[in-house]
Structure formats: C-alpha cells, structure tokens
Design brief:
By secondary structure, the chain is α+β, with helices and mostly antiparallel strands. The strands form four sheets. Strands 8, 9, 10, 11, 12, 13, 14, 15, 16 and 17 form a ten-stranded mixed beta sheet that branches. The longest helix is centred in the middle third of the chain and has 35 residues, at 524-558.
C-alpha cells in the first residue's frame, strides 16, 4: 500500500517506484525534503499552537487561529515553489520511454532538490482558482482541526487523560492525510467515481468529511449541554480516528458521488420521489420536491395542505420534461408506415404516444378527480372529530383486497410464480408466435384488469385513506409536513410500492385493535409510511445482497473453472468470520451501497454509496459499430413490447435499479430501469456484442439453458419439472415478448458453390437476370415518357442518334494526376495501339510527369490522337498518359509489351484497334416497331469492344424466349394504354433483341464468364465486386451504371443458384420472372460490409442475403436475414449482483489499474454472468456495448383502449447517444433523437 522511491545525485541514482496495482500516499523516506511532508508541517506548526495553549499562554481560539495562519503560510510557500518549478521545467522537459510491460513506474532525477524533483513531489494545481481555494481551505482545516483535537477538549469529553492522548495522536494522522491533498498533491483515492478529475474536486473530499465532524463538535460547543449531541460528538471523535482506514477501504464516497447519492436518497426516502435518469433531472426534482415540503409547513389550512399535496404529488409524478417539448410545437407528422419501417425518429400521433392536447385533458381530469376526492372526504369526514375512524378502516380493508388481487394478477403474468414455481397458466409453446399470442389472450385480459386497478382505482383509494387520517390536523411540524408530502407523492409516483406500505400500516392498526400504540400512533400516517418504506427497501436490498454473496461463495468451490488454490482458505475464513460477513452485508444494505466482491473473489467490502445508475456519465452512451444497426432496427418493436410487458406486470416489480436481460439468437439486450413515475418508466437499453468471445459464448449458452428450461419445455409434469432448477442463477426468466426482429440463418456452401454443374448453370442464370435488369432499367427510365405517334418516335430517334454520335467524341477533359492508381480497372490491349519493339537504351520512365491540362486533352482529341482512358495498368506496366504529358503517343518510339499478362502479338501483322464505332451498333438501328426506341439501352452501353465474330460465336447463349417473355411483361408497365399488339410488335423486333444481346454478351465477356465460371474463388471475387482483369473490363468500368447492373445481375444469379440447391429448380420461365421480381422488391443481395446492407436493415427490408468466406475454415458461407415477429425471452437479473460487479469493475480499473484483458474478474461465470455484466457497463469501462437507448415507456391505461377494448397505446420516448472520437483524443458525446413516443 506504500510506494517507495529513492533519489541519487550524479554518482547515485534517483528512482521512484510506484505500484500500478496498489498505490497510496507516497512515504517521504529521505531527509532532504522532510519539511515537505504534511505530517511534519502540521505537527510542527500545530504543535507550537497546542503547546502554547497547554501552557495557557494562548486561549483555544487563539491557538487555532495561529495554527491556521502557520499552515496557510506553509501552503503558500509550497504552491509558490511548485509554480516556480513548473516554469523552470515547462520549457524543455525530458521525455523518457516508458516500459509498458513493467509493473513499476520508474522516474529518474538529476538532483535531489532539482526543479524536476520538486515538480514530481508537489506538481501544483492546474487552475489558478484552485491554488487560492485549496490554500485557504488548508489553513482553515488546520486551524479548526487544531481546535477540534485540543487535549483540553478531548479530556473534557472522555474524562480520561490517557484516552484523550491516544485520540489526540491518531487524530493528527487523519488531519495530515487530508492536508496532503490540499497543499501537496492529490492523493490516490480508493473510492473513485469519475474516470478523470478534470476540475480537481478529489482533493476536497477528505477535508469535507473532516469539516462535517468539526461542525458537529462546534454545535456541541455552542448549543449548551445536550446529552444526545454530546454523545454524538464522543462517537464521532472515535470514528474520526478510523477515517484513514475508511478512505483506504474505499467506503467513503467522493464529493460528487456523495452529493448525488444524498439527493437521491432524500428524494426517494424522504420526499417520495424516484431516482432520476440524469443528474440535471435529479437536481431539479429534488429542489422542487423540497419546496413542496416547505410550502406544506407554512400553509395554515389542513384542507389547503391536503389539496396542495394531492395536486403537487400527481404533477411531480408525471414526466414534466414532455411539457417543454409540447410547448415547442408538434413535430412533422409521420404515419404508421414510417414507424414500422425502422424510421424511429418520430412516432405516430396515436393517443397516449406523446404529450398532446388529449393527454393533457386526461391528466387534467385525473388531477381534478384526485383533488375532489381528497377535498370532499377531508371536508365531510372531519378527522379532528373522530368521524373518519370507521370509514378509514373500511378503506383499509379495501386496500388489502386491492393489494392481494393486484399481486395475484401480476404473478400469473410471468413464467414463474415467486421465481421458483412454473406458472401453469403461461403458454408452453415458443415456436409459433401466433399460437403464443392466442394462448396469452387470457393473460392479456388479466393484465388489463391489473392496470386499471393499479393505475386508476388504487390511487384514489389511497388518497381517500390519507385524507381521513387524524394526523392531518397536526401538520405544523417538520416531520409531519415531510411525511404527508411523501405520502401523497408516492401514491402516484409508485402506486404498487405505496399500496404495499399502506397495507403494512393498516395491518399494524388492525392487529393493535382498540389498543393504543403511543410511540407509533404519534408519528402520524406520513412518517409511518416513510419508516415502512425505508424498512422494506433496506430489507429487499439485504436479501438481494445476501443471495449475491452466497452465490459468490458457493460457486467459488462448486464451479470447477472458478475454483482457485485459495478457494478453500477463503471459504474457511468466511465461515469462521460469518458474523463479520453478515455485518458487511447489513451495512451495505443500510447505506444503500453496493456489496463489492474484491476481484469478484469471496472477499467482500462495502463499496462507497453512489446513485442507482452506478455511473457518473449521462445515460445512453455507447460504442457504435456496424452491429449497432441490428439493435437499432429492433428498438421500435422492442419499445412496443416492453410497453405492454411493463404495464401488465409480466416483468415483476419495476423498481428503479432493476436489470433485465433479453436474448434472441446471437443478440443480447441489457435493460435497466432508471426512473419510474405515474404512467411512465424510463428504461436504458443496451445491445451487447455480436462477435462472441469464448467467455461470452459460455455465459450465453448458460443463458439459453435457463430460458430453455423455463419457456421451451413442453412437458411440465413430475417433481422436478415444476421448479426452477436454476434458482441460484443471477438470471430469473420472466416473460417472452413478441418483437419484430431479423432472424439470422447461416449455412456452409460446400457442395453448392464448388459444383461444376452449378457453375455452368450460373452462366445461364446470369444472362437471364442481366436481361431482366437491363429491360427493367430501361422501363424505369422511360416509364413517364408517353406512347407518342410516329412523329414523336422519330423525334426521339433523332435525339438518340445525336446521343450516339456524341459518344464517339472524347469525353469532357479533366485534370489527371500523374500518379493515378487503382486496383479495379485494367487496360485492354484490344482498345490500345499495339506497341512496337523497345530496347534497354530507351528512357522507359521518360521526363518528369506533370498534370494533363484541359487544353492538351482537347487538342489531342481534335488532332485525332488516341486519348487513353485513365486507370490502373497491370503490375509493372507503365501509364503512358502520365509519363509523356507533352508528347503525342504517335510520336513516341514503339515499345514492346512487357509480357505481364497482355495478349501475345503477331509480329507479322500490324494489328489495328477496331474502332468502337465498327464493333458496336452506334449507328442508327432500324427497329421494326416504332416504340422500340423507348426500350433501347443507352448509347453508352452499346460501345463495347466486342468483335462481331466473337459476338456471333456467343450469340447462342442468349435466350430469345426469355427476352420475349420479359419484354412482354415489362412493356405493359410503361403505360396503361399499351395494347397486346404493341407488346407483340416489341417482342418481334429483331433489331431490339440483337441490341440487348450485344449488351448482355459484352457484360458476360467483361466478367470473364463467356465459357463458364471457373472456380468458387472466382465467383466470390466477382460477387464482391473485385472482378479479375478481363477483356473489356475497362469499358464496363467506365459505364458505372451498367457495371452496377451487371454486378447486381450476378448476385441475383448466385441467389438463384443458392435457391436451386436448397429449394429445388424453377419449373418455368414465368416462375423465374416472379422470383426476380421478389428479389427486387423484398430482398437485398449484397455484402454485409456495404452501406446498402445497413440501410436496408434500418428500412426493414424483409430479406437480406450475403455471401461470405471463412478464412480459418476455408469455406464459403451464405447468410440470410429474414424479418419476422419472434419471441425475445426476457429475464430479471439480481440488481445488487450487477451493482456489486460494476463497483468492483470501477475499483479495479480506476484505482487498481488492472486493465489486463484476461484478468480473473472478466472471465466467464455461468452463475453470475460476469463477462456479460462487464460488457454492459457504461463506457469507458464497459466493453462493446453496441447501442444504448434511453426509453421513456408509459405504463398507464389510455382512455381509448378502455373504450374500444383494444391494445393500449402507452406513451414512450426514445433517445440514443453515442460516443464520437475527437481527433485530439477526447470523447465527445453526441445525442440524436431516435423517437419521441410521448
């Protein structure tokens, strides 16, 4: 726990070693800087003041002032020395090379009193304001601390000089430890909440606790003899000695965590609120709720207090933030179509989805109804005259009945009753979603009844019960004002918890009968409910923590992979020290602090109290990656399913801090309840990694086993079949939710892609798919063009002829860099002037290359010089355009091909490049049908460098019957007036057919498939768009649109091959046409890495197909995503187990700095789900949380669903946040609104 350093001068070595695993306040083990140690500074200066006080030369107050002034001077000196050293070393600083593999950090110094040494020991403050503030606080702390631990004061408290002397000595150790953080350097705190102390708040933590102790002592000094206050001061003086130990154990919260935890506990326990989803909401709600309690204290009328408490309790239990959005005006309306297609930015305008006029009217009606019930009952049944005793007892019986009914209806909603016994009413089959919904219809009715009783009947009954209580007449005390503020608030904020608390209070009254309980009855109903709520909350936390501790203890021995050599010793120690272990669990429950298992071993500590969220940052941060789209797609449907599940009670009690786990195939969803109010519930949803590691796989397999035992067992008979055999697991199954999600099916294509018969068939399918896409593309181009007369067709023909002629002209001149390179395009020898012989004396690389200008390109085109197409050449070849910018190609000496893949040239001939005008039908084509011009391909597609002889040789591959069928079907789509005669005339047009045959065969040759596709690797490369060099590839690449059509046709043909092997061959050409239409409409066939794949997932394309290659196995795989409604299984996690593991993660990474990726605390644990829990932590400590969504989900019953008996449309609000990496290395948080469903 102590870091040791040594310093050497010139002949010696100065080395500082600081353990990266466990660091604490460095021990100054050398005499040269002994005065810098806080202990020596404090004791020397305060010792003088104490001595003068003991000699009665100074009074206690004067001694404290003297001690404070001396420390203030010392602090100023240290800060000035630190600033001086910083200026001396700030200009030039030696940077050593750190050894990242070393466990110790070594720092070398040039001199024991050099500036570098001083700066290392006392680095100073980063902000000028903190320099002054911390210096003044150091002086005040020393002065008040001296007054706090004076021997005279301690002797007066304990009446024993020996005890006072021991307390005096040890108290100065505590004071010196706190002074060190203020004037020297920030101490390494075991309790770390923020990853970075940006504003230097950490040094204020220890002085804050000491000032708290001193404040109690000052109150005891100046308030006179109060026995309770004096006893408290005595206890705190003893506890003051153990503050260093508590700081070392990390049990005392940092300043920011303490403030947030204190406000949260006061809001929940004292004011009846709920933990908030953000720090800003927590601060605002706490301030508002405290103002309500203060107002209740000063309102003179009991009726006014009742009405005001009822109104404010209802209003504060709503999501007030929605009102601000409503005041900003409605957003652009979006229909139901856009919502279900994955566009979750704006929701539909159904009743209850967002805060509108109708929802405001509903809230206004409920508010007026609640105030009317409270006011009338309080006025008619005056509690001061004991007229309300019998009616209140009747309402108490009604509350008990409501509680039993609501509890029973909630228990039958889940798969387990009490978490142990299988529910016989829950549907058994999970394979068919429709059957599951039909079998769940009875549970839906029970859930609707439960919602009505819980959200409408129970609040009014509880308000009536509170209005009848006699303690309303005694409201002008602080405790009763706070109690009644909380009572009326919790009725609406958490109706289920309030109902349980009132049932307990009513049961105590009924058990007591007519007997008086003075201590209990004098508290009043508000304080009684507060105490009962606190007791229930802490009891539930204790049971949950105890289950977590027992799970860690037992599994450390029963799980073979968790059994370490020290497991037996640790179990024996925990067994022998079981009372101490039980005390740790009780203390953590009382403080509402996490139970921290050190390194997740059975060594338990009390973590420092922190908010329920466990993390300081804003909720919703995540690390985005390509897998996030799958969670983003299912977010809308999951929100709908969660809305119904939370409202019906199938997920159990919705206490803030509860955690749930959803599982479907390879997807894992982590759900956390952050905030709860009347009709809404704030939920944080995180998607975990899809690329499963070994640890992830082990835990995911256990999760599947737990869910399978609960949901997928058809036979539930027998002694063991009706019980939850995994009751000791941290996960307890709750319900299955129907969610519209992608089902992922993967298959190995061995025997399909490597079959010669299939490869031969692939060529025929490619031509058919290409013809279909070419015709469809032309139809889409001309779909809005009218069926004109002959004159119109002629004019169109003339325009087309002009376009054809324009193709022969050089393209627009562009600026070409000399070092142009590409991996995709190749130069074709048939389109270039053949090179002659060349010798070694020739200057192969030519003059220094420069840019080709626009004027030069235009001049060369006018002179008739060949303009080479820019693009990559073969490896080792030379880019002629780049090398000889100022010379025409005809003026260059003839060069012989290098033999790097170019076709061999017969030297006996002088081959000429066949002009594109002669190899393509660029001239006017005589169509027999006047409407054929509308269906002709673009002129640029007809300029392929394919010789007529080659085209005639490949002509039998073109299927005329398929062309006629496709053209006849698509011709009717151009215009409704197209008759059968026109369609038949188009089919009989030989010129049009030959034109499409030329384009299709040119694409076939360009892809190298004129004979057949040779190998699976060739097929895979073409599918991915990495087409090997072939004749005519440069021409195809220049026509980008045609290239995309050809690539799409090839992918369609491969999908036809896949379907042929898995489903059987197609029976007719009509079936092939229908299949291609289905591909175009409902399928995306491409690669997972493409942007189109992600867009189609978010747009909820029904089906997606991708071809992959497994390099490790050497196999080709096919992946099919199908969008369908599936059952996502959801289970409840042990919330205290999650908080404990997250507390250990924070301690281990932020304090112990154990960031080893193979450390024990993140290894797979099938019972605790340790690896998944670590992944679900917020960044930067969490691992691979893909998508994090903040969901405001309403759980109230809407008026429309009550009237129409339809499914309720609850309100919700959906936000998402991601972390973007700034180039400077900082994390910037960016938030966008995925949907606002309220």
């Amino acid at each position: 726990m102590i870091s040791i350093f040594s310093i050497h001068s010139k002949d010696d070595t100065y080395t500082y070693c600081s353990s990266l695993e466990m660091t604490c306040t460095p021990l100054r083990a050398w005499s040269g800087w002994g005065q810098m140690c806080p202990c020596s500074m404090n004791t020397s200066r305060s010792g003088i003041a104490t001595l003068l006080c003991q000699l009665q030369l100074l009074e206690e107050l004067h001694a404290a002032v003297l001690s404070g002034l001396l420390m203030l001077g010392a602090a100023v000196g240290v800060q000035a020395l630190a600033q001086y050293s910083a200026r001396r070393t700030g200009t030039v600083e030696r940077l050593g090379v750190p050894n990242i593999l070393a466990d110790e950090e070594e720092v070398e110094f040039t001199h024991c009193v050099g500036p570098e040494t001083v700066r290392f020991i006392a680095p100073g403050k980063r902000f000028g304001l903190n320099v002054g503030l911390h210096t003044v606080l150091a002086g005040a702390l020393c002065g008040l601390g001296t007054w706090y631990v004076l021997l005279g004061r301690l002797t007066a408290l304990y009446d024993n000089v020996g005890v006072a002397l021991v307390v005096f000595v040890l108290s100065w150790v505590t004071l010196c430890t706190a002074e060190y953080s203020l004037i020297v350097n920030t101490a390494t705190e075991t309790a770390t909440f923020q990853p970075q102390d940006t504003y230097e708040i950490t040094p204020l933590t220890r002085p804050l606790y000491i000032f708290t102790f001193i404040a109690v002592d000052l109150a005891d000094r100046f308030t006179g003899p109060v026995a309770e206050l004096q006893l408290t001061s005595q206890v705190l003086h003893v506890l003051f000695l153990f503050l260093p130990l508590l700081w070392a154990l990390g049990m005392l919260s940092p300043l920011d965590a303490l403030l947030l935890w204190g406000m949260e506990q006061a809001l929940v326990i004292g004011l009846g609120g709920s933990p908030m989803s953000s720090n800003f909401r927590l601060l605002g709600m706490f301030a508002t709720s405290a103002c309500v309690a203060v107002c209740n204290f000063f309102i003179p009328s009991t009726l006014g207090v009742t009405l005001f408490s009822t109104a404010m309790g209802f209003l504060l239990s709503l999501d007030i933030s929605q009102l601000g959005e409503h005041c900003r005006g409605p957003r652009e309306a979006r229909g139901e179509q856009g919502w279900h297609k994955g566009d979750t930015r704006n929701p539909p305008h159904w009743f209850g989805w967002r805060l509108g006029c109708r929802e405001l009217l509903l809230y206004l009606g409920l508010l007026l109804g609640a105030m009317s019930v409270a006011g009338l009952i309080h006025h008619l049944l005056n509690p001061s005259q004991n007229q309300a005793r019998e009616p209140q007892a009747a309402v108490g019986y009604l509350l008990i009945i409501l509680f039993v009914v609501i509890w029973a209806l909630g228990e039958v909603q889940g798969v387990y009753v009490f978490g142990v016994f299988l529910n016989p009413l829950y549907p058994r089959g999970m394979a068919n979603v429709q059957m599951f919904k039909q079998q769940s219809s009875g549970l839906h009715v029970a859930g609707a009844i439960r919602r009505v009783l819980l959200n409408l009947v129970s609040p009014f009954a509880m308000i009536a019960f509170l209005a009848m209580d006699v303690s309303v007449q005694q409201l002008h005390t602080a405790s009763l004002s706070v109690g009644f503020t909380r009572a009326f608030r919790v009725v609406c904020q958490s109706s289920e918890d309030a109902l349980l608390q009132m049932v307990v209070v009513v049961s105590v009254k009924l058990a007591a009968g007519d007997a008086e309980l003075p201590g209990w009855d004098n508290l009043g109903i508000g304080v009684q409910l507060l105490l009962v709520g606190l007791l229930i909350d802490r009891l539930l936390q204790f049971l949950s923590k105890l289950k977590f501790a027992l799970a860690v203890l037992v599994t450390s021995w029963t799980e073979k992979k968790q059994r370490r050599q020290s497991a037996g010793t640790l179990l024996a120690l925990n067994a022998s020290l079981f009372p101490l272990l039980l005390s740790v669990v009780v203390l953590s429950a009382l403080l509402s602090a996490p139970l921290l298992p050190l390194f997740t071993l059975p060594i338990f500590l009390v973590g420092f109290p922190r908010p329920q969220r466990s993390w300081p940052g804003p909720v919703g941060t995540a690390c985005p990656c390509p897998d996030s789209i799958y969670y983003q797609q299912m977010s809308g449907s999951l929100a709908t399913a969660l809305r119904s599940a939370l409202a019906s009670g199938s997920l159990g009690c919705l206490a803030p801090g509860s955690h749930f786990l959803g599982r479907f195939q390879d997807r894992v969803v982590w759900i956390m309840i952050l905030e709860r109010g009347y009709g809404y519930c704030t939920v944080n949803i995180k998607g975990l990694e899809l690329q499963e590691t070994s640890c992830h796989t082990v835990e995911a397999r256990r999760v599947d086993e737990v869910f399978e035992w609960a949901f997928e067992r058809t036979e539930r008979l027998g002694l063991n079949q009706g019980f939850n055999l995994h009751w000791g697991n941290v996960l307890t199954p709750c319900a299955a939710l129907p969610v519209r999600v992608y089902s992922d099916a993967r298959s190995v294509l061995s025997g399909i892609i490597d079959s010669h018969d299939n490869l031969r068939k692939l060529q025929d399918d490619f031509l058919k798919a290409l013809v279909w896409l070419l015709l469809r593309n032309c139809v889409q181009r001309r779909k809005n063009f009218p069926w004109g007369t002959e004159e119109g067709a002629g004019s169109r023909k003339s325009q087309s002829s002009q376009m054809v002629r324009s193709v022969t002209q050089p393209a627009e001149a562009i600026v070409v860099e000399s070092n142009v390179s590409s991996l995709k395009f190749r130069q074709d020898s048939s389109s270039l002037t053949s090179f002659g012989d060349w010798s070694d004396e020739d200057d192969l690389f030519g003059p220094q290359p420069t840019k080709r200008t626009v004027a030069l390109l235009s001049t060369e085109a006018q002179l008739g010089h060949t303009v080479l197409q820019t693009g990559p050449s073969l490896p080792g070849s030379v880019e002629m355009d780049s090398l000889f910018e100022n010379m025409a190609l005809s003026a260059l000496p003839p060069l012989q091909p290098l033999g790097l893949g170019l076709p061999a040239v017969d030297k006996g001939r002088n081959p000429e490049v066949v002009p594109r005008e002669t190899t393509s039908t660029t001239a006017h084509v005589n169509f027999s049908c006047p409407h054929s011009e509308l269906f002709s391909p673009p002129p640029g597609w007809r300029s392929a460098p394919l010789l007529p002889s080659r085209q005639q040789q490949l002509r039998p591959l073109f299927n005329d019957e398929w062309f006629r069928l496709t053209l006849g079907r698509l011709a009717l789509a151009v215009h409704d007036e197209a008759s059968e005669d026109v369609s038949k005339a188009l089919q009989d047009d030989v010129g049009l057919r030959d034109l499409y045959a030329q384009v299709a065969l040119s694409c076939l040759v360009s892809l190298g498939a004129e004979s057949s596709f040779t190998s699976p690797s060739y097929v895979y490369r073409v599918y991915c768009g990495d087409v090997p060099w072939t004749e005519g590839l440069d021409w195809l690449s220049e026509n980008k649109e045609l290239y995309q059509v050809a690539l799409k046709a090839f992918r369609y043909s491969f999908k036809l091959l896949f379907d042929h092997a898995s489903l059987g061959p197609l029976e007719s050409l009509e079936e092939l046409f229908s299949t291609l239409e289905e591909y175009e409409k409902d399928w995306y066939i491409g690669l997972v890495s493409e942007r189109g794949w992600q867009d189609c997932v978010l747009q909820e394309k029904p089906f997606l197909f991708s071809l992959g290659h497994d390099l490790t196995m050497g196999t080709y795989t096919g992946r099919v995503l199908s969008l369908q409604e599936q059952l996502v299984q959801v289970g409840r996690l042990n919330g205290e187990g999650v908080r404990g593991q997250w507390a250990n993660l924070s301690w281990e990474l932020l304090y112990a700095t154990n960031d080893d990726e193979e450390r024990y605390s993140i290894q797979a644990h099938p019972i605790m789900l340790r690896n998944l829990t670590v992944q679900a932590a917020d960044p930067p400590l969490g691992r691979c949380a893909k998508l994090s969504i903040l969901l405001f989900c309403s759980t109230r019953k809407s008026h429309e669903s009550l009237c129409l008996r339809a499914n309720p449309r609850w309100s919700s609000e959906l936000h998402s946040m991601c972390i973007c990496r700034d180039p400077r290395g900082f994390d910037m948080v960016t938030m966008w609104d995925l949907a606002t469903l309220t």
